[in-house]
DNA sequence: GCGCTCTACTAGCGCGCTCTAGTTCGAGTA
DNA sequence: TACTCGAACTAGAGCGCGCTAGTAGAGCGC
């Protein structure tokens, strides 16, 4: 910076002004300084900048490396953050790297706020985090804590999916849940409520699962094994999320079950996987882009407005009917083995 | 820091020593200072630390948000970097965010080196990047540039896959390539060479594709359409990568083509998707963990040893035979429509 | 008693920037 | 002419650390 200033014949302060795009420099000087900087290859050092101005204008994002829905969210976070003048740093949780570790990395890099994508850490830890810094959680509520919360109205989404299936004539509708996954509890509850509302409580069945393809594959195996020992397949499955639905589809299709002729499958998320199948996956769309926007805005507003009470954004999900859901199979129709 | 020093009755320098885990403080003082720091909630500010010591000990990783293989690589980068005492910052390229932008973000956050996962940017840009900083590229060679390179021996992998298929009796083996994707050119070349070596050059066919599920789905559609107009299906397909193989499988399976009875499919990468299918995807394993380790080591060695010539690590891929490859269908067998 | 070494600690500069409180200068105003 | 004012620019403190060069004091041998 000093070099640039000297070579351009101005003070360091002016160089600083120019690089911060602030008023107070004439057009010619501005151009000259920028040209010199370019020649020298000078780029402002963000560490020093950050130290000097006391603010980093950086948002940290903690995500789980393999979750496709998270990558959809990230895609939405970048542009909104940029629009508001913030940088984004990513830190991934993996098998060997806990969420807490990922978050600490963000904080020690001076992120002013952290956005947690479907966090799975201890509520106590999250609550403490909310005290320590500005935190926004997507998909998982952190009760009683100073953490903003963005999610979609799981209940509404599930209800739409269930109404759709029932309308198609389905009665034996099974739900694979998402275990401790974000949103799972609400989805499970909404599934049960929907079955009750349609007078199907006797047939309600929740199969424990996870938000992974593996879980879908396993459930497929389970259902097939049950069929082979006499218990009929359900006619429709509401999966915990798209990944689970995909696993299930792979597993059933391979075994000769035709979707949606023999069985309907509905996912959740509308992650980019959903478009994949030739028929497309019927799924409940969570608008990742919109959720990302809200999360970024919550973080920034809290940073810039100081004390605000914890807030919550609830987005309406929307059923997207594609090819994996269809009318219930005719009674007594033989399912190919 | 000053607060901690005062409250513990020592100098700031000593607090610094203690937090850097350096020798030169007595056990009691150390404990007292740490206790005080904990009470106050002091954590060293990495911006200032970084500014003061001139080194950030941080590696930047540029990746493409939706690439599953990249997430496998990231999973391997974290532990190795930690082992060597480096922090890791992630920056994703998305549709709206170019690789260059992602890299700039890393550099302005003072990453000392960047690891590029399958970069797709202009060679000129990458070469310039190699001049400007320490850069390691995984999967894509940057010719003539000061960029280290980690990849697997694509040729060997493809050869193993082809030998496997030929041994199973396959002759009509088609390759879906990966377009400009990393490694694609080598794989394409190796496919052609293998066909030639087995005397099958007349039957060689490369279908242009990409490293995405969509591309696999599309190719499936293409092959089915061809079949319907009289051209027989190939008996085996070597896909550009696992994602492409998955798309292909979805598309074909849905149309009643049974894998591997009617058609064998081999992927490339052995990304975590490969285990998904009930039968498992036969694929060429690129050891993501090992590749990640090498990349991190390259970066760190270059940082700590100063001038080194550009280096290259070639890892041996390994064919993993799972369920999607099998003997060639009996001649004249009717493929179910 | 002296010098020596070793451990435990400290003073204070400098990292590269931002920001406040200026200064300078030319044009406009009474 | 004397002034005000705004645009263009500058000096220099300070952000929170790390690090070098140093000091104080205890222990030791002679």
From TrEMBL, chains A, B:
Residues 1-53 form the HTH lacI-type domain. SUPFAM superfamilies: lambda repressor-like DNA-binding domains, Periplasmic binding protein-like I. SMART domains: HTH_LACI (SM00354). InterPro entries: HTH_LacI, LacI/GalR-like_sensor, Lambda_DNA-bd_dom_sf, Peripla_BP_I. It comes from the Bacteria. The keyword Lipid metabolism does not apply. Keywords: DNA-binding, Transcription, Transcription regulation. GO terms for molecular function: DNA-binding transcription factor activity; transcription cis-regulatory region binding. This is LacI family transcriptional regulator. It comes from Streptomyces coeruleorubidus.
